[in-house]
Amino acid sequence: MSSDERDEWALFEREMRDVRPIKSEPKVPLNKSDAPAETLAQRREMAVREVVGAESNFLSGDYVPPVDPHDHLAFKRDGVQNGVYRNLRLGKYTVDARLDLHRMTVEESRRAVFQFVQDCMAQDIRCGLITHGKGVGRETPALLKSCVAHWLPQMHEVLAMHSAQPQHGGSGATYILLRKSERKRQENWERQHKRRG
C-alpha cells in the first residue's frame, strides 16, 4: 500500500468513526417456516406465464394452408408415446376444458385459442377440446378448422392434437393434449422418489 493510499484510508476512518448503523425493524417478518409451499419452479412458471401473457399473441395469421372440411387433423410432437397419442385419437382421455369457436371471426378465434391454451396450462388441464366446425358450404370452406390446424403446432404447450370422435364433434372438433405444468412435473418427481426411497 502506498503512502497516498494509507493517508486516504486514515482520512476515511477518521471521517467515519462517528457513524453508526441505523436501527430499523424489518417491515415483513422473514420466517422461512411461514413461507408459502410454492417451490422455486412454481414461481418461475408463474413469472414465465406473466411474461407470455404480457407479450402479444404470437400465433401466425399470415398464410394458413387450407384443409378440406372433412379431413382429419393430426399432429404429434417427437417424444409423445404412440399409446398416449392413440388414446387421444380414440377420445379415451377426459376432456377437462372446451372452447367453441362458432360465430367467431378468425382474429377472435386466434385470441381465443391462445388464451384457452394459456388458461388450461394455468389450471393444469391436460386434455381439451376445440370445436371449430367444418365450414361446409361457406365461401372459404373449413377456414377456422384450417386456422386451428395451423396454430396449435406453433404452441410449445401443445404436445398433440387429433380430430375428435363423433360423440365430441367428429372432424368439426379437435382434441388437444397439453404438456404437464412445471408444478405437476415436480409433484410426479416427488411421488416417484417417495416410492423408491
Automatic annotation (TrEMBL):
Residue intervals passing through the bilayer: none
GO molecular function: DNA endonuclease activity
InterPro entries according to UniProt: Endonuc_SmrA, Smr_dom, Smr_dom_sf
Protein name: DNA-nicking Smr family endonuclease
This protein's record includes keyword Repeat: no
SUPFAM superfamilies with a match to the protein in the record: SMR domain-like
Any one Pfam family match given in the protein's UniProt record, by short name: Smr
Family matches, as Gene3D superfamilies: 3.30.1370.110
Smr domain span: 99-179
Keywords: Endonuclease, Hydrolase, Nuclease
Domain of life according to the entry: Bacteria
